[in-house]
Amino acid sequence: MAAKQILKKKHLEEEELAKLKKLDDNSVQEEYEYVAVPPDGGFGWIVAIAAMLCNLICDGTLFAFGTMKIHLQEYFKCSDMLILMVGSVPCGVYLLVGPIVSGLANRYGCRPIIIIGSVGAAICMALSTLSPNVWVMMIVYGVFGGIFFGMVYLPSVVMVSFYFDKKRSIANGLVTAGTGLGALSFGPLADLLMSKFGWKIGMLIFAGIMLTGILFGLIMRPLEPQKVPVKREIELQSPVTPQTQKNQDLSSPQAILKTTDGANEVLLPTADESARISTTATVPVGDVNSNEVPAVTTVDPTSSPLNQSSRNRTISSSSHASVGSGENRVGVSNPEDASRPLYKKDAFVSGSIQQLHHASRTSLNKTNPYMSSVTNIPAATKEEKKKDSAVRAFIDILGAMTDFSILKNKQMLLICIGNIFSMLGYYLPIMCLVSFAVEDLKVNKTHASFLLTIFGLFNTIGRFAGGPIAMIPHLNALRVHNALLFMAGILTVLAAYAYNLTTCALYAALCGFAIAPHMSLLPSVIYDCVGLDRYTTAFGILFLFRGVTSIIGPPAAGFLKDSTKKYDMAFAIGGAMIIIASFFHIFIAFVQPASETEVEKEQEKVQKKNKLDV
C-alpha cells in the first residue's frame, strides 16, 4: 500500500510539472514583441550617405539663392524686398511644414515622402520658369516648392536616427557635411549656369539635380522589426520551513500566477517543495540584421527536485525583449508601430543620447538611455484597431509637435523667443552678401559668388568643431553656443563696414564659423532644458518659430536696402537682432529649471492623454 501511494504521488508530481512546463512553453510562444534595432553600421552607412546627398541638393539649392537673386532681379525688374521674399519663403515654409511632414513620414514611411518631395520640388522649380511675374514665382517656387523641400529634408534626417544609436553623432556629422557641400558648390554653380544659359535653363538644370532625390529616397528602406520573445522570469520558491511543513496540509499548496496587474490566479495544485527554482526565458545575443526568431533558452523544471512545496510563477512586467549588444530594447505588440521612425523620442537627436548629457535632469531613464528613446506608443493594437493605428501614427506626431504647452517651460520659452530674433539675421550672409559685394562694393559677379563657398566651408567646420569645443573643461554646449552666437552678431554688424572682396571674404569665413553652433549645439541645449520625453515636441515648436521669422528676415533686409539704396543698414540691424538673440539664450542659465515634480506631473498628463486616445 505504501509503495502504491509513493508511486501515485510521484506520478501526480510528474504530471503537474509537465503541465507547468507546457504552460511556460505556451507563454513563451504568446509573449512576443516587435523591435527595430539600429544596426549602427552596415547598410546604415549607405543610408547616411543618401541622407547627406538629400541635404546637399535641398539646402544647396536654397542657399544658392543668394547668387540666383541677381539674375532673377534683372529679369523681373522688382525691388529687393520682393525678390528676397522669393528666396525666404521656401526657407520658412520647409520649417513650418515640419510637424505635418513628420506625421506623414510616421504614417507612410520616410522613403515615399522623400520620393514625392523630390518629384514635387523638381516640378515646382521647372514650373517657376513660366512665371509671368515675381508673385507667381513666389507662390510656385516659394510656397509649394518649400513644402516639397521640407518633404526631402526632414525625413532624411530622421532616417539616420533610425539606423544609428551609438554612432549617430558620426552619421549625423556626415549628413551635416551635405549642407556645407551644397553651400560650397551650388552658389558658384548657379552663377555659372545662369550666366551662360540664362536663369530659366539654369533653374531647369537644378530641377534635374533635384530629381536625383528619387534614387536617394529609394535607398531609405525602413528597418524590418524583429519578432522576439519577451524576457520573463519564472520563480519557483517555497516559503515553507521544515517546522511549518510538518503542520501544513500537503494536499493544499497551489501555484500562484502573479499577473502584471497584481492579481493572483490559481494555476495548479502542487506537491510539497522545499527548494526554489528560477526559470528565465531569454533571447541570446545575435545578428540584429537576421530575420530569424531568436531561440529561447529555458531551464527545464523537471530537472528540479520533486519534493518541493509551493511554486510561485512570476511574469516580470518590466522585462522586455533583449537583442543586440546586451541592452534592453523596448518592443511593441504591433510590428507596424515598431517600424515607425517618429515613434522614437530621440528621432531628432543629432548625437547619441549618451553623448548629449550623462545625467539629464529630466531624463526618464538615466541608467538605460535607449529604453527612454521609445515613445509611449499606444497600447497593444488589436486586430480591429489596426486601421486606427495607421491614423494615429499621423495624429500622434502632429499633436506632439504642435503642443504649445511646452512653452510653460521657461527655458524653452527663452529659446523660442531667442530664435525669433536670431532667424531675422541668420539668412543675411546667405541671401544678401553676394548682392552686397556686387552692388555696393562693385565686386566682379563671378568672384562674389565664391563668398558663399567660403561661408559654406567655414560653416561646415564650425558645425564639426562645436562639439569638441563644448567638451573643453569649464565649457558646455550652452556657453559655447551663446559666445559664438554673440560673436556672429558682432561680425554681422561690422560687415556693414566691409569695403572690398577681401573684407567680405573675411566676414563670410568668421560668421560662417560662428553661426554654425546655432544649428549644431542648440539640440544639446534643448535636451538639457526639456529632457528626452518632450524633445520631439520642443523641435516641432522650434520649427514653427523659426519658420515664421525665416520668411520675414530677408525681405525686411531688402526693404531697408530699397529705402537706403545700400545694404549696410540691413547688416547692422540684422547683426543687432542676432546679438539680442544671444542675450535671450544667455538668460537660460539664470532661469530655474523645471523641478522633478513638475516634470513627473507633465509626464502623467501625457500618459493620461495617450490612454484616453486609446
Automatic annotation (TrEMBL):
Residues 47-593 form the Major facilitator superfamily (MFS) profile domain. InterPro entries: MFS, MFS_dom, MFS_trans_sf, Proton-linked_MCT. Keywords: Membrane, Transmembrane, Transmembrane helix. The keyword NADP does not apply. Residues 285-338 are annotated as: Disordered. It comes from the Eukaryota. The chain crosses the membrane at residues 43-66, 81-101, 113-132, 138-163, 170-189, 201-223, 412-438, 450-471, 483-499, 505-526, 538-557, 569-591. Residues 309-325 have a biased composition (Low complexity). Residues 299-308 have a biased composition (Polar residues). Pfam families: MFS_1 (PF07690). One of its GO terms (molecular function) is monocarboxylic acid transmembrane transporter activity. One of its GO terms (cellular component) is membrane. It is a multi-pass membrane protein. It is found in: Membrane. PANTHER family: GH22266P, MONOCARBOXYLATE TRANSPORTER. This is Major facilitator superfamily (MFS) profile domain-containing protein. It comes from Adineta ricciae.
